[in-house]
Amino acid sequence: MFELAVDEFVSQKIQPDLSELSVPEMLHKAKNLIVADEEAFSEITRIYKYAKDLEKQIEAQRKAANAPEQSRINERNDKAKKLVEPLKQIQDLCKKRLTDYQLMLEKQKEEQQQRLLADSSQEELPVELPIPTLRGSGAIVYYEYERCFEVEELHKVPNEYWIVDEEKIRRHVALGYESIPGVKIFTKKITKVRSR
């Protein structure tokens, strides 16, 4: 249904004052039109307005065509989220319990290691006891080592690891900040086109 409507728009002719051009012909004209006088300026603004209006019509038809399906998708997503949310809570609780148990075993191992060290002679060093992989009826608990970091002295961190918060800078510039150390603030002229 939507595809047919788009095809109709694309194949339809432009208003008579635009020389009955098709959309591909109009694209060619917009690419090749040299705006050097009022007449060409008027022509390019008419082409722009028509293209903008056509885009709005197509977008409105797309939204109307997608609305029923989008509504069903949103309903399915909401229902799935309600079903999955408690399952995620269960998983998080189980992971916490498993982690606590694993830590308890590690503490017991450490205590056993200390006892062995105290009981052994100075010449014999006890062998470190590994913590076994725990296998339950529905899951396996094991250790995985992940390299992590935390910044201790911010002023020593090399510049290559810093990220500029561009959004924050844009907000401050919009609020009228005249200067930010290390940032060049300037005014740039941008051409905007608005259809009437």
Task: Describe the structure in your own words.
Helix content is 57%, strand content 2%. By secondary structure, it is mainly alpha-helical. A two-stranded antiparallel ribbon has the order 1-2. A hairpin with a 4-residue loop joins strand 1 and strand 2 (140-141). It starts with a helix and ends in a 22-residue tail after the last helix.
Structural class: mainly alpha
How would you sum up the global shape? elongated
- Average pLDDT confidence is 79
How many helices in DSSP terms?
Answer: 4
Tally of DSSP β-strands: 2
Radius of gyration: 34 Å
Strand content: under 5%
Which bin fits the share of residues in helices?
55-70%
Element-by-element helix/strand order: HHHEEH
Ranges where pLDDT stays below 50 over 5 or more residues in a row are 9-16
Oligomer: single chain
Adjacency order of strands in the biggest sheet = 1-2
- How far do the termini sit from each other? 30 Å
Query: Largest sheet at a glance?
Result: 2 strands, antiparallel
Q: What is the total domain count?
A: 1
